[in-house]
């Protein structure tokens, strides 16, 4: 290559270096930077000069790369500042999200960008907004935790990138995700978490429809944008919450101002009704006052629908579906053209109050009606307290009547006097009734109510409700009691009755007889029925006596002991033998054994009970003992 005057003056190496500096200033490519060193080498300059220029070229390349990175960083920072300003000016969440994905797509020069937000209830992320997407399936995609690249980012809160997602085995591929990615034509993907504090609220993505390796600077820039975006999203969310709270407070203020006068009226009415209760008014007085307040008919009912009081002109009735609706809504409801409010004490239903003649009930009047239900609950609780006190007195009297010790302690005249004050005439014939059921608390309450209505006494003894009632036919009344109490309890109630007794001294015996009758009925499998001992027949009388076990042990006890020691079933063989009428062939068929086995077992019975075990007299006792033993085991 010819050498001009300048090069002759400064030398080829210096000229090459000056040329290299000019190329650096012109921000040329790496290939152009290598030209001075190539030309110097072709000019047959010294090896030292060429080496020096090549070293300078390498430095120049590093300088240009550094300058390029700095310029790019400056551009990214400027873009981020612009993005932050744009996001700060936005107040709508959809606008914020669209701005985020558009800026991400622009900054990375990607084919598309999108955001997937977390759904805390479903436990996954869903595609919220996209920019550049053309696939409907892709735009509706949901990613479970750990599924695909996005699911892994959401689960680990770490950024991930893939040059070609379709063939990248690092990620958990699913048919649904892969189908959407294929339809969109995506290959290169990068995803970064959007975090508020330690919580990941979503994932920001950028993607290309050709394989692309995203540089660390690309990932870092996307992370910075995602951080800005997360803050903006949280700010918009808090702003929307603040706006909603402000709207709610405004509505509350309006409602408060509108109802202020009505609430004062309701409070005055509540004081009026409460004063009525505290001054000794009854349910009828309360119904009359409430009917006057609402200018309509009022009905007050107990928990079972029984009418306690009614006042005012017009028709009202018990509305069970209204009570259920009121209990569910914890307020007054309109049902069947009537306003109904449940009367409760905590979770316990006490009854209901019903208002008629009002097609509509304003908010203030509805609150007043609900206050009336509270006062009704107070009155019913007071009534129940009085009833509970009376029940305790009645129970104590019954307890003294049922025990010899109680009768001796109180004396006959004292017992008659106490009974007379409670409206119980002990000079009439009475019977004792013992009730057995799983629902004892509710049964005891109903027993007290029934006893007061019938002029008798009720209480509890040995874990069972006991009634002392005037009775001409104890067995008939026991059956009626079993049916009536069974309906109340919603399950079988067994009632055992004593015979009629006419004196105080026989009441303890009658109680013992009623207990034995109840136990006998349970043993006989007559649960849910009512009867007296006379109606149970000979087996019932025998099971009701205290000597049943002794009879069984005396008659077949050695056989039962043998079975227990040896693990045999001679007792079962005897039952099958008697059931077959003493026929060996039928017995062996019933037991499914060989006839010789039956003979051997009966020989063993003879050896245990004696040779006359099958004589007419012994046979009757053995059969009876076997039946009593089986029924006793079933009852236990």
UniProtKB/TrEMBL annotation:
Any coiled-coil ranges, and where?
A: 229-256
Q: Is Protein transport found in the keyword set? A: no
Q: Give the matching Pfam families.
A: GAF_2, GGDEF_2, HTH_30
Task: Give residue ranges for domain GAF.
Answer: 92-243
Q: Which UniProt keywords apply?
A: Coiled coil
Does the record bear Ligase in its keywords?
no
Which Gene3D superfamilies does the record associate with it? 3.30.450.40, PucR C-terminal helix-turn-helix domain
Protein's recorded name: GAF domain-containing protein
């Amino acid at each position: 290559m010819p050498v001009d005057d300048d090069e002759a003056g400064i030398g080829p190496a210096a000229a090459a270096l000056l040329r290299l500096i000019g190329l650096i200033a012109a921000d040329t490519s790496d290939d152009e930077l290598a030209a001075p060193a190539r030309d110097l080498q072709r000019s047959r300059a010294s090896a030292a000069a060429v080496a020096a220029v090549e070293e300078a070229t390498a430095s120049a390349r590093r300088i240009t790369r550094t300058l390029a990175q700095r310029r790019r960083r400056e551009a990214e920072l400027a873009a981020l500042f612009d993005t932050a300003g744009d996001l700060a000016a936005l107040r709508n969440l959809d606008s914020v999200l669209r701005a985020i994905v558009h800026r991400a797509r622009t900054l990375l020069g990607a084919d598309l960008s999108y955001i997937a937000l977390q759904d805390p209830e479903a436990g996954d992320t869903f595609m919220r907004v996209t920019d550049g997407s053309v696939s409907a399936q892709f735009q509706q995609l949901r990613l479970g935790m750990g599924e695909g690249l996005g699911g892994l980012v959401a689960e680990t809160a770490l950024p991930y990138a893939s040059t070609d997602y379709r063939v990248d085995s690092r990620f958990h591929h699913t048919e649904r995700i892969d189908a959407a990615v294929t339809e969109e034509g995506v290959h290169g993907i990068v995803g970064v978490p959007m975090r508020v504090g330690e919580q990941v609220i979503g994932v920001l993505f950028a993607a290309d429809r050709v394989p692309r390796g995203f540089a660390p600077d690309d990932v870092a820039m996307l992370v910075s944008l995602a951080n800005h975006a997360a803050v903006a999203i949280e700010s918009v969310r808090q702003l929307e919450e603040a706006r909603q709270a402000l709207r709610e407070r405004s509505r509350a203020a309006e409602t408060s101002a509108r109802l202020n006068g009505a609430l004062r009226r309701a409070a005055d009415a509540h004081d009026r009704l409460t004063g009525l209760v505290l001054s000794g008014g009854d349910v009828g007085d309360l119904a009359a006052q409430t009917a006057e307040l609402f200018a309509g008919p009022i009905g007050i009912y107990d928990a079972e629908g029984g009418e306690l009081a009614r006042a005012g002109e017009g028709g009202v009735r018990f509305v069970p579906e209204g009570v259920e609706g009121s209990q569910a809504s914890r307020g007054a409801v309109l049902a069947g053209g009537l306003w109904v409010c449940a009367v409760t004490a905590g979770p316990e239903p006490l009854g209901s109050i019903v208002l008629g003649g009002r097609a509509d009930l304003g908010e203030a009047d509805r609150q007043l009606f609900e206050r009336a239900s509270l006062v009704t609950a107070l009155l019913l609780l007071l009534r129940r307290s009085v009833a509970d006190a009376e029940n305790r007195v009645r129970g104590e009297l019954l307890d003294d009547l049922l025990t010899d010790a109680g009768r001796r302690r109180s004396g006959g005249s004292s017992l008659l006097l106490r009974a007379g004050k409670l409206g119980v005439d002990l000079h009439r014939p009475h019977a004792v009734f013992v009730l057995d059921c799983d629902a004892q608390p509710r049964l005891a309450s109903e027993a007290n109510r029934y006893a007061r209505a019938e002029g008798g006494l009720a209480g509890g003894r040995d874990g069972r409700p006991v009634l002392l009632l005037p009775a001409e036919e104890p067995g008939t009344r026991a059956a009626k009691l079993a049916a009536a109490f069974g309906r109340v309890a919603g399950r079988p109630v067994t009632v055992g009755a004593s015979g009629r007794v006419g004196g105080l001294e026989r009441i303890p015996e009658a109680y013992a007889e009623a207990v034995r009758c109840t136990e006998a009925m349970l043993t006989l499998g007559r649960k849910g029925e009512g009867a007296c001992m006379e109606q149970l027949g000979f087996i019932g009388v025998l099971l009701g006596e205290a000597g049943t076990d002794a009879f069984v042990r005396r008659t077949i006890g050695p056989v039962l002991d043998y079975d227990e020691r040896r693990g045999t079933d001679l007792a079962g063989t005897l039952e099958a033998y008697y059931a077959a009428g003493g026929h060996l062939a039928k017995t062996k068929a019933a037991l499914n054994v060989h006839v010789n086995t039956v003979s051997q077992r009966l020989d063993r019975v003879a050896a245990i009970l004696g040779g006359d075990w099958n004589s007419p007299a012994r046979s009757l006792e053995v059969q009876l003992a076997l039946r009593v033993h089986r029924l006793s085991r079933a009852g236990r």
